[in-house]
Amino acid sequence: MFFADEAEDWARKGKEVILVRQETSPEDLRGMSVAKGILTARGGMTSHAAVVARGMGKCCVSGAGAVRVDYRARTMTIGSEVYNEGDWLSLDGSTGEVYLGQVPTKEAELTGDFGALMELADRHRRLGVRANADTPDDAKVARAFGAKGIGLCRTEHMFFEGDRIRAVREMILAEDEAGRRKALAKLLPMQRGDFEGLFREMSGLPVTIRLLDPPLHEFVPHDEANQKIMAHEMNVPLGVIKMRVDDLHEFNPMMGHRGCRLGITYPEITEMQTRAIIEAALNMKAQGFDVRAEIMVPLVGTVREFNAQAKVIRATAATVFAERGAEIEYLLGTMIETPRAALIADSIGAQAQFFSFGTNDLTQMTMGFSRDDAGKFLPSYLKDGMYERDPFQSIDQKGVGLLVQMAVEKGRSARPGIKLGICGEHGGDPASIAFFHRAGLDYVSCSPFRVPIARLAAAQAAIDGGQ
Ligand code: PEP
Ligand code: MG
Q: How far is ligand 2, taken at its centre, from the CA of residue 218, in Å?
């Protein structure tokens, strides 16, 4: 299937679906969650499809450069062969191979030895292992695999659930702050409910919630058919929608209006998310859960950016505490994912209570490779030995890693007890985990399904390299 909504229809009818896209974006989330596998022409190890599929424990081949998708004709072409909607395909997510036809598969099995091995690993490792989890269900899986907290909740994934995308779009279309606040007020209870679920599932363990990160264009449709549907649903002329979508267009969205830049230009978004986190934390605490909230600001590059967001977060939390007559403790920290943030990590560390290295963006920006486009040349680079390993898969220790090491030192020099973690996809890669152990991080965070590997790799790193 080539369209996420149609994948949902097929899955509802009990059919097994592989979603084939040029690339995926958050609006494909529901289609991805019902698909048995995902195949994209563009992308790589840290593109949207790969990150989301890994989190869902799904098979995914992303960045299959030989695949040409024609959405109009509903065909996929590989070389001279044309495949139609409904044709059987099989995927091998480990090797990236795509087979025509139905290859027999079987579920992975866990035996008693697995539990014994994990226990042994836990006795030896120093690094903590958390999970990247966006929903209470993800959190449950993560906990069952032995995660000791959530290292990254990407809140944007919550914006697509049910009918809340409508409120998100209302916010995007709003012409002024009052209009945005009205739409955000609709999102607040839903977002609060999400966080309550996470705090409940992770009682006694830390939950790091990251404020909104992706550029806003990811929340609006780009094709006319879906723009028409949006116009109809929202009772807005099609021309207005098109104009706003055009306004949001960026040549390089990954370096555009995203991360804390959103929260700085629209502080009301940060306010709503903070209120949702703090209210959820107070509600869960009142029900007897042990809540450990950590609020994280994305894509910071200057101390002023962090301080501006910190001011909004602290003021909002203080308002909610006063309204409720109750308080909770929470940590306020930042991602280190721009090279500049790593270079000035001492000044940022003087302000932030924790760092989480966003090595996906840090790799993208340090190498100057787009994480969504590198699939075009990386395979031949790897074949030619230009790089030993895909730097989005295994951390580039000499370059990007140096920035991590430097930021660890600088962060600790400014705040000796600063909590240091990593939540990029490298958090589930054994060679990278060994590097993070040596760099002295406190924990790694990876997709729930990679938690056991991370526990084992962390133990091997400790045994190999001493503490
Ligand atoms: C990162 O950049 O490493 C990260 C964890 O954030 P995202 O992948 O959502 O950009
Ligand atoms: Mg990032």
A: 15
Q: Highest-confidence range of 28-42, 179-193, 368-382, by mean pLDDT?
A: 179-193
Cβ–ligand 1 distance for 337 under 6 Å, the answer: yes
Nearest residue by C-alpha to atom 4 in ligand 1:
358
60 is a catalytic site residue: no
Residues forming beta bridges with residue 208, ordered by sequence position: 294
Cβ(32) – ligand 1 distance below 6 Å = no
Instruction: Say whether 48 is catalytic.
Output: yes
Q: Give residue 388's pLDDT.
A: 92
Residue nearest to atom 1 of ligand 1 (CA): 358
Q: Tens of pLDDT along 393-423?
A: 999 999 999 999 999 999 999 999 999 999 9
Looking at beta carbons, which pairs linking 403-406 to residues 24 or more positions away fall under 8 Å?
Answer: 403/339, 403/342, 403/343, 403/362, 403/366, 404/336, 404/342, 404/357, 404/359, 404/362, 404/436, 404/439, 404/441, 405/439, 406/342, 406/343, 406/345
Residues 217-227: tens digit of each pLDDT: 999 999 999 99
* Tokens encoding 350: 């003087």
How much is the pTM?
A: 0.87
Catalytic position from the list 60, 153, 260, 423: 423
Give the DSSP H/E element, type plus range, for residue 75: strand 75-78
- Report the pLDDT value the prediction gives residue 104, as an integer from 0 to 100: 87
Q: Which string of DSSP letters, residue by residue, matches 371-417?
A: TTTGGGTHHHHHHTTSSSS-TTTS--TTTHHHHHHHHHHHHHHH-TT
Pocket of ligand 1 contains residue 359 by CB under 6 Å = yes
Decide: 156 in ligand 1 pocket, CB within 6 A: no
- Mean of per-residue pLDDT scores for the chain: 94
